[in-house]
Amino acid sequence: MKVAVLFHRLGPYHLARLKAASALCELHAIEFSTVDDTYAWDVVEEKLHFGRTTLFTDDDVEKKSTFAIMQALKNAFAVIKPEVVAIPGWSGRPAFLALALCREIGIPAIAMSDSTEHDHPRYWWKEWLKRCVAKNFTAGLVGGRPHAEYTHKLGVPSDRIFTGYDVVDNNYFLVGASDARKNAEQLRAQHTLPENYFLASNRFVTKKNIDGLIRAYGAYRARVGLHGWKLVLLGDGELRPQIEGLISKLDLGGDVLLAGFKQYPDLPVYYGLASAYVQASTTEQWGLVVNEAMAAGLPVLVSNRCGCAPDLVRKGENGFTFNPYDINQLTDQLVKISSKDVDRKAMGGESQKIISAWSPETFAENLFLAAKAALSTPQKPFNLFDKCVLQALGYR
Q1: Using CA of residue 261, residue 7, residue 133, residue 101, what is the dihedral sign?
Q2: More exposed terminus of the chain, fewer Cβ within 10 Å: N or C?
Q3: What is the pTM of this model?
């Protein structure tokens, strides 16, 4: 079975999934562009055991003309000749154009999606439009339960929807965190890390609710006193000046550490030396950083607006969820998770058990099942209305 998987840009997260999938099928990755205006990952240059085609290397694909994108996709499909194509759902112009091309030449398409019904305001006309798009997919590979429910609501039959889209290389973080703990004293000094700290890793954008986390942390420090844990924030972005201003305003300069954006090889140290992980987003389709933290053996505090929460967080076993708009509730959770009454080592072990079911192999197995389901399902005719909808979205 020859399967083509499309991604905006290949990063370390995609690489782990694709390596596993290549063991089950003849896999070819199509990367829209090596330039991404959102994520500053290093370019993946290692030798791969599956095919890789990059459509554009000079700029983000979203800046390319519709004609250029469609022509590049046609050329790639003509060379690869995929039997099934997995597309990142309704993620943007390139995805709509890829779906339109699949329908035009009769290749079944799989929707890869981590959208839930509640991760954005939903308007009837947009949902109607999305259903018009979704019916052109033959199968789905989605994040977890809420994502499967939403994809089914959009019109993809439930028996052709599979979970496991949002996974990371668990072993990488497990081993890396373990190694970091063996050299804790040296690494803490090298990275200027405290003995105990809450860790959060995000782009500094509004939906990540970093200001809410800092306010809750300030209340936590006021409650527990000088012996409370520190807060380490990984990441960077447009809101950094405001975040720095809030830290100063709350007089938390000695307690909140802005460590900056870290590339993939640096992450296990920060997870391995942390005491707990916090994800405070007001909206989050999934939250792969939670996977990473759990694989590293950390207890987790996760906003109930994160798509991963229903599948990954078990109250009192490996962590807790909270309402990200309720500062007091988050403060209570910070106090609870850092108290002597909580067995954090046991909770971290439970995190690793839970996340073991969400691995690159999970992605590979369920991509394979989705591809089989797509190939065994008769393709519906590509009528004029569907064609107009996809072309309009692709040309918008």
Answers
A1: positive
A2: C
A3: 0.93
